[in-house]
């Protein structure tokens, strides 16, 4: 019964001394507000333009400035890392920079979705960013947007016989790119692997199961359950080339969702040693519904559990060897003490 709602808005429409929202904006606000009453951060309503950006991201190609970003605990949009050779890198943006303005308009207090819609834009167009650096210096950068492939895989040999793979997200190409990296490294002489899932926020469930299967000959990858009696078991099948190679998985507090599925599966099956920090703890399953106007509704429908029946949501994934993140370092680069510990482990404890 929405009679009270209509009664209230009838009064507002007649008496409010200001501009009323469009019917579309009002509708989206109603849906978004009602979803928030569920008190579940992962059941979300996305307006059409935001939903379109997410679909683009998970497809692998993006038009924008070329940087990985995240939302900080204080609500700022922070540049995690400019992508090498892309516009953000070329103009001098740095990891840790906070985006506080776009095209002369303050974006402080706005959510990451709203900010990214303003930063993104057609290839060749220009955006002016106001940046807060080191908490005190305010800088202006003019960036020409481009179209680029999101580099979800970085791989290299870190010793004569140890290969390193960093997977940044589980998009639609994650399994294929991981397999390609494995084959390239083993061809270069890798006899052990370090699989880096730090700062990986997750992605598609089928890709996480597929990636875990690359390293598992058999066994459970995860259980999916809900309070209505659903229980589904995802398992690994034999036949992949990386099922016996010694390996370490790197995790941290920003490893979430699909990353936690893979880390938990490899740990519980005795397949890999986990090094780093306890993961984020995002173990719920969202069903995505595309609505008639292109908006999306993501509804939590179940929870994930590791092969040892551990709830990812409640505990996250705890490393076998805890190594705290250094204050200032680059993943896979200089000062990465977690990576250094992984190399030491593979060299001395296998």
Structure description:
With 350 residues, the protein is of the alpha+beta class. Helix content is 30%, strand content 29%. The chain contains 10 helices and 19 strands. Strands 3, 4, 5, 6, 7 and 8 form a 6-stranded antiparallel beta sheet that branches. β11, α6 (174-187) and β12 (192-196) form a beta-alpha-beta unit. The protein is globular, with a radius of gyration of 22 Å. It starts with a helix and ends with a helix.
Brief characterization of the structure:
This protein has 350 residues and is an alpha+beta fold. The chain is built from ten helices and 19 strands.
Structural class: alpha+beta
Helix percent band: 25-40%
Spatial shape: globular
Query: Would you identify the regions where 5 or more consecutive residues have pLDDT less than 50?
Result: none
Terminal CA distance = 65 Å
User: So what's the oligomer here?
Assistant: single chain
Q: What percentage of the residues does DSSP assign to strands (E)? A: 25-35%
């Amino acid at each position: 019964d929405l009679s009270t709602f209509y009664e209230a808005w009838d009064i507002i429409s007649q008496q409010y001394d200001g501009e009323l929202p469009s019917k579309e904006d009002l509708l989206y606000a109603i849906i978004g507000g009602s979803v928030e009453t569920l008190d579940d951060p992962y059941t979300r309503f996305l307006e059409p333009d935001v939903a379109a950006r997410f679909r683009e991201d998970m497809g692998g190609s993006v038009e924008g400035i070329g940087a990985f970003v995240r939302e900080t605990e204080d609500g700022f949009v922070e540049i995690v890392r400019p992508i090498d050779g892309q516009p953000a890198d070329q103009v001098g943006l740095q990891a840790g920079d906070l985006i506080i303005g776009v095209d002369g308009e303050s974006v402080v207090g706005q959510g990451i979705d709203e900010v990214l819609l303003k930063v993104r834009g057609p290839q060749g167009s220009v955006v002016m960013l106001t940046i807060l650096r080191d908490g005190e210096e305010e800088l202006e950068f003019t960036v020409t947007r481009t179209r680029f492939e999101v580099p979800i895989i970085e791989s290299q040999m870190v010793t004569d016989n140890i290969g390193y793979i960093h997977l940044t997200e589980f998009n639609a190409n994650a399994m294929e790119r991981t397999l390609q990296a494995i084959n390239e490294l083993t061809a270069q002489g890798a006899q052990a692997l370090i699989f880096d899932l730090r700062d990986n926020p997750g992605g598609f469930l089928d890709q996480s199961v597929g990636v875990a299967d690359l390293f598992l000959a058999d066994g459970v990858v995860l259980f999916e359950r809900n309070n209505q009696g659903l229980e589904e078991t995802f398992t690994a099948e034999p036949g992949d080339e990386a099922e016996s190679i010694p390996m370490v998985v790197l995790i941290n507090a920003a490893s979430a969702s699909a990353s936690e599925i893979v880390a938990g599966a490899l740990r519980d099956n005795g397949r890999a040693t986990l090094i780093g920090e306890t993961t984020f703890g995002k173990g719920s399953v969202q069903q995505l519904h595309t609505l008639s106007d292109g908006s999306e509704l993501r509804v939590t429908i179940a929870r994930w559990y590791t092969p040892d029946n551990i709830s990812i949501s409640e505990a996250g994934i705890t490393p076998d060897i805890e190594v705290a993140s250094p204050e200032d370092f680059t993943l896979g680069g200089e000062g990465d003490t977690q990576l250094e510990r992984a190399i030491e482990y593979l060299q001395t404890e296998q």
